[in-house]
Amino acid sequence: MDAVIKKMQPAPRLVKRPTQEEAEAAVRVLLAWAGDNPDREGLLDTPRRVTKAFREYFSGYDEDPAEALSRTFEDVGGYDDIVMLRDIEFNSHCEHHIAPFVGRVHVAYLPTKSVVGISKLARVVEIFARRLQTQETMTAQIANAIMNSLQPGGVAVLVEAVHTCMSMRGVGKRNVATITTQFAGEFKTNPVMQARFMELVRAPSNGFSL
């Protein structure tokens, strides 16, 4: 089965990235603002560690979801039903407080002429999760990226997550799950297809694992 690779334009960078030295200086300011001494032994290397961690947390800004979905396969043997990935685990950060939120994504699409490697769908989730986010925006971004790149008959995305900005501050309520959905194409217009997706999301896994 030969792959078809679409040429994609690189995603434009939205802002000029500060230098490493500027970023570390900003961390030192925040440490002092919090009330600690950035020059004490335990914090001397903290600015470098924090900026290194931020590079990892927010690596999605350096990646293009359209590029991840550009390699497709047209020989699908006539398959035209749901392709679904369940329980894609993710870690992200709330754009309001830079507090982590963690959860799972369930993604499905209806292929038309081609399919994409299933790992690429998980990659798209990872790219958007590793940016400052709201759960609602991330849900829509995942669905739109798949819809725009693959032109399928429909896309369905369900995200369920727990937000530490709700458990560690504010109302202080732990283990409250937030659920968001986004439907496009036939999943939006056909209640039967939408119901099938939700049934697959909630179906027991029977303990299957490798």
Question: Can you put this structure into words, describing what you see?
Answer:
The protein has 210 residues and is an alpha+beta fold. It is built from eight helices and eight strands. It has helices at 20-34, 46-57, 65-68, 118-129, 135-150, 164-167, 186-189, 191-202; strands spanning 3-5, 71-73, 83-94, 100-109, 115-116, 132-133, 154-163, 177-185. The protein has a five-stranded mixed beta sheet, with helices on both faces. A three-stranded antiparallel beta sheet has the order 1-2-5. A hairpin with a 5-residue loop joins strand 3 and strand 4 (100-109). Helix 1 (20-34) packs across helix 2 (46-57) and helix 4 packs antiparallel against helix 5 (135-150). The model has no long low-confidence stretch (mean pLDDT 90).
List the main descriptive attributes of the protein structure presented here.
210 residues; alpha+beta; three-stranded antiparallel sheet; 8 helices; 8 strands; 38% helix; elongated
* Biggest sheet details: 5 strands, mixed
- How much β-strand is present in the residues? 15-25%
* Head-to-tail CA distance between termini: 25 Å
Across the major sheet, the strand order is: 6-3-4-7-8
How many E-type strands? 8
Helix residue percentage: 25-40%
Number of helices: 8
Radius of gyration over alpha carbons? 20 Å
Rounded mean pLDDT score? 90
Oligomer: single chain
Low-confidence stretches: none
Task: Please provide the ordered H/E string of secondary-structure elements.
Answer: EHHHEEEEHEHEHEHH
